[in-house]
Every structure is written in structure tokens, then in C-alpha cells.
């Protein structure tokens, strides 16, 4: 790994580093606050020998004293002196071994000075122990250095400095502990971030998705929290990053196969909760915005969500037609968005896979292909069930959803393999819920809206057709519908114009079960009939 790889990891996983550092600092602070304060009292001893008459004798005496200092530091930390100190003070709550652990003796090289330090939770007792220990050692050293036959001791020890009551504790050192906790937490956080990145097998970039799917990335949809409450995007009013991402995907779809562009498309994913249904809904809407006639089929016959998100009746629909209980004209429902029709799931069948793989399902799909320019099918996830695999084999192909940071490489690879084993054509992949900030984030909103605010004139009134056309695009003629029975405005031999806002027409919403509706005909690019001639309802694009 190079330096920019580590920087990329830190930029993507800075939260791990931050949380680990904060936890380490808080741990160091907690340990400092919970640790009992320790006070330290210190004394200093001076070791000397009897002075000689000559310079050589004095030099030899100094060497002898320095050698004695090294031995005395061992005696000062022994249990014998500790026992004598406890007896002198009359303390019974400490053992000689415990007191010996509290004593530290040290001396500087080439000196005859010994520093004695005693640690204790009480500053007064630390002072008393240090002074008593030093006084007892003076006596002990005299006893050890005095010859057995009497005479002057060969060396003597003097307490050069007695201990005072310490004012501040020597432990814990809060500032040092906090600095150490910060350093340890930072290093540990970086290590965890790198390890997490190495162990992360989710898809997060175009290169990985294209390598696993063996096809191109059709679209990248940024994360939009508003889609959690409202799945459908009002494209005629929205210039958000999500809306522009879907418009870019619409363009890519048209260039997948210029000579024979896909018109019947299954939108599926490896597992649930990857944005499959939301992507299918907005793909249909963005195609309808461009002036195409689109039908959105709720092909997930296990956990349907399209009818709920778009507010259409879901009790009758795809399964009703497949079981022969109703015709396609009886269950097609216009949505509140112009150009978009919905075929709900209907009652949930016990055998969705067999029903979707039947010849009847193929005939229904072919019928929808003849009626509409685009048929978008919201299918079930590929790995749990085979419903979408069966549907994709009977259509122009499938768009496979991969959720950023959620779909693993293995899951995506298995989904691609399942589609390929059934002979389904994988049109491309779509990465959903990509981050809005950081590397690779999309900033459509800033650039697009800033240009609109700068260049656009005063706010124009909304188009009566719902505003599905791009700004500046020439006005298209409203698509005509064949004659519809039972409608007051439909006369024999005349065309019936579809409502401009379907949700506002009580004729399509007040019935508990949708009545038979006319077959929507895609607007033809050729000039319309002249001299009042009537379009044959059987003519399709």
C-alpha cells in the first residue's frame, strides 16, 4: 500500500479512528480518576569513612565509601530494615514485605549520597516511614560496620536531609496519562481502520462492480434520506442529486443497445433492503418524464411495495391476470404521474415462481410490450428466491442493484451467476445509496441549481400536464387514448384524452376495485391522423 491508500482509508474510516481515540482518552481519564493518589516522601543519607593522614589514604577512603553506597542501597530495600522500622513506629497493618515494596533507594555514580523514597497513600505516614527508616538504617549501619572486638566503625551513615510532608501526589499523573491515551488511541484507531478496510469485502467502487458483474455500471444513485419516506421523486419539480443521477441513468439505458434498446426491464438485487423498489419506481418515472409511455409492474409477488409507495390498489393486478380471474385491461391503473401506469401485484399466490415462469406470464409481458414503450418490472431479490431469474429470462434483461457498502462481492457474484445460469441477459448494474460526501460523491445539486438560479428567468407557472418535460423542450402533443366505455366525455368515434393529473380524477380513484381502463398507446413519432380520422385501437408502435 502507498501513502495515498492510507490517506484514502483514513478519509473513509475516520470515524473508527476518532471513536478509538476518544475511548482511549476517556479510559485514561477514568483510570486516573479511579486510581488512589500516592504520596512520596524522600530523605538523603551521607556515607563516609574515617579520614586518613595522607592523600592516598583519603582517596582510598572515598573509594571505600562509594563501594559501601552500592551495598547500602540493597540493605535499605530489605525486609530486615523494614521490620525494624515497623517496630519503631508500632504499625501492625503493614508487613515487612509490603513496606519493602514501598521503599526505593538510589545513588548517583561516583557519589556517597543515597536517596531514600517511601510511597504511601497518606502523606503523613509516608513522611514518618521515610524518617523512621533512615534513622533505623543509621543505627543498623553502625552495628554492621563496628568490628566484633570493638573500636571505631569503618564507615558511618548520617541523615543529611529528613523528609517533609508531601503536598502533591506523585501518582496518578493525569496529564501524562491523557497524552499517552491519546497517542495509543490514535495509533490503535489507524490500525483498526486499515484492518477494517482490508477485511471489508463490500462493493464500493465502479471497478469492483464491473469486474464482478462483467458488465458496465449503468447508474450511481446517491443516498437520499427523503426516499425513506417518499420513494418516488417528483422529477418535474426536482433538480436534486438523486434526480440528476436517474436522468443520467436514463441516458445510459438508451445507449445500452442503440439498434435494439431494451424496453422490458427487470430491476432486481442480490438481497432485500438494497434500494430495488425505489430504483424501479424512479426509473419508470424518469422515463415517463422524457415523454415515454411506461408501465411499472409489481413483479415481487412475495413482499410487494410498489402499490403502497404509489398509492394504487394492490388487491388486484399481476397475479389476478396470471390466474385468469381478470384481463389486463381490467387491472391496469393510471398513477398520479403522467405517462406512468401501474400493474400491481394482486393477491399473493402460494407459488410465485411457477406462476411467473408460466406461458401466461410470457403472454402478459408481450402484451405489455405492445402497449407501452417501456415495461419496468420490480422483481424479487435474486439470492433468496428465483422469481426475478425467471422473469429476466423472459424479458430484454435485468438491471442488478448493488448497495454501496452493504452488498458483498460474494453476494453480487452469486447473483450474476444465478442470472447467467438461467440464460437471462444482464443489462448492467446500478450502485445505490452512495455517500453524498467524500471521495466519489456526487454534487449535482450544487452545480445544477446554481446555474438554474443564475440563468433562469422569473418562475414560470406549472405546466398543466404535470411538467414532465425538460426545461426548454418543445411542447409535445398530449397522447390520445382510445374510446373508453362508460365515460361521459367519450363519444362514439371520438378519442378520449387521458386526465392531466390522474390522482385528481375521482373516476379512477373512488372505486374499491379499478374498473376496466383503455389500453394506453405510446405516442407515435410519426405525424398523427389527419382529416378527423380515427386511430385503430389495434395499431401499436
UniProtKB/TrEMBL annotation:
Disordered: region residues: 453-541
Descriptive protein name: non-specific protein-tyrosine kinase
One Gene Ontology CC term in the entry: plasma membrane
Enzyme class: transferase
Domain called Polysaccharide chain length determinant N-terminal: residue spans: 4-87
InterPro entries (UniProt xref): AAA_dom, Bact_polysacc_biosynth/exp, LPS_length_determ_N, P-loop_NTPase, Wzc-like_C
Any Pfam family: Wzz
NCBIfam families reported in the protein's UniProt record: eps_fam
Regions that span the bilayer: 12-34
Amino acid at each position: 500500500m502507498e501513502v495515498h491508500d492510507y490517506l484514502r482509508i483514513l478519509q473513509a474510516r475516520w470515524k473508527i479512528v476518532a471513536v478509538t481515540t476518544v475511548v482511549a482518552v476517556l479510559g485514561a481519564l477514568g483510570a486516573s480518576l479511579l486510581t488512589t493518589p500516592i504520596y512520596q516522601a524522600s530523605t538523603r543519607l551521607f556515607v563516609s569513612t574515617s579520614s586518613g593522614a595522607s592523600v592516598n589514604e583519603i582517596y582510598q577512603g572515598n573509594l571505600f565509601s562509594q563501594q559501601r553506597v552500592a551495598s547500602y542501597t540493597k540493605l535499605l530495600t530489605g525486609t530486615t530494615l523494614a521490620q525494624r522500622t515497623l517496630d519503631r513506629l508500632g504499625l501492625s497493618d503493614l508487613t515487612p514485605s509490603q513496606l519493602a515494596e514501598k521503599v526505593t533507594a538510589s545513588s548517583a555514580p561516583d557519589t556517597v549520597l543515597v536517596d531514600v523514597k517511601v510511597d504511601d497513600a497518606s502523606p503523613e505516614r509516608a513522611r514518618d516511614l521515610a524518617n523512621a527508616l533512615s534513622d533505623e538504617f543509621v543505627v543498623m549501619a553502625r552495628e554492621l560496620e563496628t568490628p566484633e572486638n570493638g573500636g571505631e566503625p569503618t564507615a558511618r551513615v548520617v541523615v543529611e536531609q529528613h523528609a517533609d510532608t508531601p503536598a502533591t501526589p506523585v501518582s496518578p499523573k493525569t496529564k501524562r496519562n491523557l497524552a499517552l491515551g491519546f497517542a495509543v488511541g490514535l495509533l490503535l484507531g489507524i490500525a483498526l481502520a486499515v484492518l477494517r478496510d482490508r477485511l471489508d469485502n463490500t462493493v464500493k467502487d465502479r471497478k469492483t462492480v464491473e469486474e464482478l458483474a462483467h458488465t458496465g455500471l449503468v447508474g450511481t444513485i446517491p443516498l437520499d434520506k427523503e426516499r425513506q419516506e417518499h420513494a418516488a421523486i417528483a422529477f418535474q419539480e426536482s433538480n436534486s442529486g438523486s434526480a440528476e443521477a436517474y436522468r443520467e441513468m436514463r441516458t445510459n439505458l438508451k445507449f445500452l443497445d442503440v439498434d435494439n434498446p431494451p424496453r422490458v426491464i427487470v430491476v432486481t438485487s442480490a438481497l432485500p433492503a438494497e434500494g430495488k423498489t425505489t430504483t424501479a419506481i424512479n426509473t419508470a418515472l424518469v422515463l415517463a418524464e422524457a415523454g415515454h409511455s411506461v408501465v411499472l409492474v409489481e413483479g415481487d409477488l412475495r413482499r410487494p411495495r410498489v402499490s403502497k409507495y404509489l398509492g394504487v390498489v394492490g388487491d388486484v393486478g399481476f397475479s389476478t391476470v396470471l390466474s385468469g380471474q381478470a384481463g389486463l385491461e381490467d387491472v391496469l391503473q393510471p398513477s398520479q404521474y403522467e405517462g406512468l401506469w401501474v400493474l400491481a401485484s394482486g393477491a399473493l399466490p402460494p407459488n410465485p415462481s411457477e406462476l411467473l415462469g408460466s406461458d401466461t406470464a410470457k403472454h402478459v409481458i408481450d402484451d405489455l410490450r405492445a402497449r407501452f414503450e417501456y415495461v419496468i418490472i420490480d422483481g424479487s431479490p435474486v439470492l433468496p428466491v428465483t422469481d426475478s431469474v425467471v422473469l429476466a429470462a423472459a424479458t430484454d434483461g435485468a438491471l442488478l442493484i448493488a448497495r454501496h457498502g452493504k452488498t458483498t462481492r460474494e453476494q453480487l457474484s452469486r447473483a450474476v451467476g444465478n442470472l447467467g445460469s438461467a440464460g437471462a441477459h444482464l443489462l448492467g448494474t446500478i450502485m445505490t445509496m452512495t455517500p453524498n460526501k467524500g471521495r466519489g460523491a456526487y454534487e449535482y445539486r450544487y452545480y445544477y441549481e446554481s446555474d438554474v438560479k443564475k440563468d433562469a428567468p422569473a418562475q414560470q407557472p406549472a405546466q398543466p400536464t404535470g411538467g414532465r418535460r425538460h426545461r426548454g423542450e418543445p411542447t409535445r402533443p398530449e397522447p390520445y387514448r382510445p374510446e373508453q366505455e362508460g365515460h361521459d366525455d367519450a363519444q362514439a368515434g371520438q378519442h378520449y384524452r387521458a386526465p392531466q393529473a390522474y390522482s385528481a380524477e375521482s373516476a379512477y380513484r373512488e372505486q374499491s376495485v379499478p374498473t376496466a381502463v383503455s389500453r394506453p398507446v405510446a405516442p407515435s413519432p410519426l405525424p398523427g391522423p389527419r382529416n378527423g380520422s380515427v386511430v385503430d385501437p389495434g395499431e401499436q408502435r
